[in-house]
Amino acid sequence: xxxxxxxxxxxxxxxxxxxxxxAASGRTFGxxxxxxxxxxxxxxxxxxxxxxxSGISTYYADSVKGRFTMSRDNAxxxxxLQMNNLKPEDTAVYFCAATDKxxxxxxxxxxxxxxNYWGQGTQVTVSS
Length: 128
Description:
Layout lengths: L3 E4 L2 E4 L4 E7 L8 E7 L6 E6 L6 E3 L7 E6 L4 E6 L8 E8 L17 E2 L3 E6 L1
């Protein structure tokens, strides 16, 4: 089992940057594929990015590709999301999630269902 705690959210102007962190408990962090999702008011939870357990491979939603970078430090049990050139439409609560399920097709990891564990979320607000 793993527990996840996000931090780093806040208020930023359009064009600015934020780095989110997700601290994980447990000694097996590197065995979990991780994901970032976001949820804006009145909208469904939306996939942002996912990363393999080793950190070698990442996959992004088209809406954030080229602006966001997901990474992890398994020695520190920490996941990151570097967000650059933020836009007002990036405003949402951001969640990190972990899964021990394996699928050959990485597109499965763009859905929330495969993820076993979720953090409580951190608010990101981008003003225009």
